[in-house]
Amino acid sequence: MLIAIEGIDGSGKSTIANYLKEELEKEGFRVVVFKEPTNSIYGQKIRQSFNNRLDAHKELELFLLDRKHDVEKNILPALKKGYIIVMDRYYYSTIAYQGARGIDIDKIKKMNEKIAPKPDLVIILDVKPEIGIRRIKERGDKPNKFEDLEYLEKVRKIFLELKDDNIVIVDANKNIEFVKNEVLRAIKKFLKFKDTQNSHQA
Ligand code: TYD
What we know:
Blueprint: E1 2-7, H1 13-26, E2 31-35, H2 41-48, H3 56-80, E3 84-88, H4 91-99, H5 105-115, E4 121-126, H6 129-138, H7 149-161, E5 167-171, H8 176-201
Parallel strand pairs: 1-3, 1-4, 2-3, 4-5
Helix pairs in contact: 1-8, 2-3, 3-5, 4-5, 4-7
The protein binds thymidine-5'-diphosphate (TYD).
The site of thymidine-5'-diphosphate has 10 residues, from helix 4.
């Protein structure tokens, strides 16, 4: 099973991904968290561009190369071994962030779905950009060129307009305990749904 945690910068993705891993492990599942961009050569090039952004198409190309590498090296092998995979960002980030730079959203989606398995569940942590940026500053980081208020407004808008059966939007403006509960509820509902589907098939 593949779960993607998505949202703008400062929405709490890493905290939630690690929390989910702990909770699902308590239920007896084997869980692994993967984070994108990765530390591949492509991911390193992406990080080098954080304060001096590349041309939008070049940037998209790097995210796709990094993802392809992640799929082949990490995601597919872990799926084969029966792990639940929790992605701390996945291709919905490409749709929203590179889409916000003017690249066609459907085109980005199609390019990704050619190389990357579609997640069973996507949790979008929705936060106002002001709050996200405040959290980044509170944790002692200096916002980079991706973390600009106006840009993140556009990114957030695309996240909120995404529509698919596998997408759940969670209000992440509230405190982290509230968000943890909401996410856990969404996952449990989904697992129950899978369970009834499986028992119908059996
Ligand atoms: P982030 O999760 O903030 O990584 P780190 O904690 O290492 O800074 O991701 C870095 C930035 O990359 C973030 O602002 C979102 C952006 N991004 C894209 O623009 N497209 C993508 O496909 C992905 C995965 C991330």
